Every structure is written in structure tokens, then in C-alpha cells.
Amino acid sequence: xxxxxxxxxxxxxxxxxxxxxxxxxxxxxxxxxxxxxxxxxxxxxxxxxxxxxxxxxxxxxxxxxxxxxxxxxxxxxxxxxxxxxxxxxxxxxxxxxxxxxxxxxxxxxxxxxxxxxxxxxxxxxxxxxxxxxxxxxxxxxxxxxxxxxxxxxxxxxxxxxxxxxxxxxxxxxxxxxxxxxxxxxxxxxxxxxxxxxxxxxxxxxxxxxxxxxxxxxxxxxxxxxxxxxxxxxxxxxxxxxxxxxxxxxxxxxxxxxxxxxxxxxxxxxxxxxxxxxxxxxxxxxxxxxxxxxxxxxxxx
Length: 300
What we know:
- It is a single chain.
- By secondary structure, the chain is mainly beta.
- It is 11% helix and 47% strand.
- The chain has helices at 155-159, 184-192, 229-237, 276-284, and strands at 3-4, 12-18, 21-26, 32-33, 42-48, 58-65, 75-80, 83-88, 96-102, 109-114, 119-122, 130-138, 143-145, 149-152, 164-171, 178-181, 196-205, 210-217, 222-226, 241-249, 255-261, 270-273, 288-296.
- Strands 9, 10, 12, 13 and 14 form a five-stranded antiparallel sheet that branches. A four-stranded antiparallel sheet has the order 3-2-5-6, with no helix packed on it. It has a three-stranded antiparallel sheet with strand order 7-8-11.
- The longest helix is centred in the middle third of the chain and has 9 residues, at 184-192.
- Mean pLDDT is 81; it is low at 1-42 and 60-66.
């Protein structure tokens, strides 16, 4: 990168001025200056040196210097009902973005150019085909390419609503334990034997990549729930019964279920809730805050 001016100009000084401050000077009779600062804005001035004390320097030419792009775009791709949606964060110094696509081992081909937006929908896709995308952030002087990202276009999946399960919350006034289940028969049985029905705790996805494991302590009569295989296996080694997958966590992390621990209790040692207010109240009276247990589907 540099600034070029005519060789016919014999004695010149090349100055890069940014906010009126001189950042670089080349007093040689050269016609190429190769010093450009990353991220800098300003103007190159090519100045002809005065031949005598009675005359002054004169500006031969001025060239605007724009940002040099150093950041790499990070892109996301997803299926929609009308095509593949591509989005990215805006990059400092970029005046426009070029969208490239390929299938299989083909070379990348430009399919669009965006000047101000940071999203693009590829509407020329075919269901069942896998497409690979790349974004180029650019200006007149530099460019930066994103990593490639692939997706198999599935129009049916894009239109299909998430199947969900209603999660019921119950409370045992004798032991202090909260219990959670998606099984309506189990809920009705527990209410029949004296548990309090506390309504709907949250909405869970029917399935996901993140199961929530259910365990039971036969000595204390307490249940525990966790997404962690390590915690599950540790409790099984310590004598807890593994009762299989209780439900699933939302991989899209829609609504957080906060987890608290009561260090003074034998049963009902853990509580899980959508309510941040409930979480904060329990922490205030002595419960230990243990972060997020899992996620429910975000309500519309």
C-alpha cells in the first residue's frame, strides 16, 4: 500500500497528516511511499520543496487515506422459509461487503454486494443442497475475508414450529422438596398423596441435544436434576439412583432456569426457577446461587 505521484516532480516531501499531525515524512526524491498505518484516517500530501528561501513549498497532490481493514468478519448462516440467511457483525473501515457461495468443491462465486447492511438472504437455494458461504469486507484500499461456513438448506425444518412439553412444578410441604415432571399422570398422583400443585414451571422442548438427567437419593428421599454427565455419574457412584432423562434443555437458550442450593437442608436441597426475583430472594435468605441449570423454550 502506498501513494504514487509523477516522477517528473524532482524534489518532494511526502507527509501523512492525521488530525493535522505529521506522522511520517520521506524527504527523498522518491515517487512511492510505503508507510500506511492500520486503522488510520487522513490524507497524503505530496509537497514540492521550495527552491529558495524566497519561495514556499507547494502541494503537488492530495490523496485521501482510508481505514485499513484488520478485523475478520464472523458470519452466521441459518435456514428460513425463503432461503439461507447470512449475517455478520459490521467491520470498522469496510465500505461494502461481498457475499460468496459455492457448492461441493466448486470455486467461490460472488452472489451479492451489500453497502450498508450486515445481512443477506440467498433465495436461489434448493432444499437438500449444502452450500458454503464466505463474506468479504472491503474498501478501496484493503479487504478481509471471513472463514467459510456451510449449511444444508432444509425449508421444512425452517417452517416447522418447535414441539414442546409442559413442565409441572410440585412442592412437598412435609419434606420441603420441589419436584418437576412433564408426566401428567405422575403429577396427578403426587397431588393425590399430598403434594402441592404449583402450576406450570416452564415449557421444555420435546427433544434437543441437551438432555436433563433425573436422579433420586433413596436415603434422603430427594430428587436432583442436571445437564452435566459428570455430575450425574458422580452422584450415581455416591449411591443415587439414575432415573433416566427427565426432559430436555432448549439449545437456543430461550429462558434460563436458575439453580439454587440450600446448605442447611437434607431434602429439597435444590430449587430451580424461571423467576430471577425468586432466585434473588432465596439467595438473600441463605441459599447458594449456582447459576443456570438449563433452559426452557422462550415464550412468545
